[in-house]
Design a protein that fits this description.
With 120 residues, the protein is α+β, with helices and mostly antiparallel strands. It has helices at residues 6-11, 36-44, 79-103, and strands spanning 17-20, 48-55, 65-72, 106-107, 118-119.
Length: 120
């Protein structure tokens, strides 16, 4: 996965969202996409995982978190079974965050019509 270039980031600062298939900041960063975050969660012995929607910044997975949804790690989980449960959450979480930004329930500083990088 390649980072977004500095010109694009500058032109759209505070307006680029990412959905990450794990809870940030613990399971993010370069190389943490696809199955990798789920492997890391299981190797760490974490009791839960989840999905995170955050603003994109120059460094992978370090932008302000807008919302997270947690998913329990179940006994016997494999990276693939955990990935499938997290993916189901991602599908609703991302659209819910976008709807909440449009409705003004999540505000992002510098974005017209909103006023801070946190949910209300």
């Amino acid at each position: 996965m390649r980072p977004i270039g500095p010109k694009t980031l500058a032109a759209f600062s505070g307006r680029i969202l990412n959905i990450h298939p794990a809870l940030l900041p613990d399971f993010g960063g370069a190389g943490m996409y696809g199955i990798a975050p789920h492997i890391a969660v299981l190797q760490a012995g974490a009791r839960e995982s989840g999905a995170t929607v955050h603003l994109v910044t120059a460094e992978y997975d370090t932008g302000p978190v807008l919302r997270q949804k947690r998913v329990p790690v179940l006994p016997g989980d494999t990276p693939e079974t955990l990935q499938q449960r997290v993916l189901a959450v991602e599908h609703t979480l991302y659209s819910d965050v976008i709807a909440d930004i449009i409705a003004g329930r999540i505000t992002i500083e510098g974005l017209e019509g909103t006023g801070g990088a946190e949910g209300r």
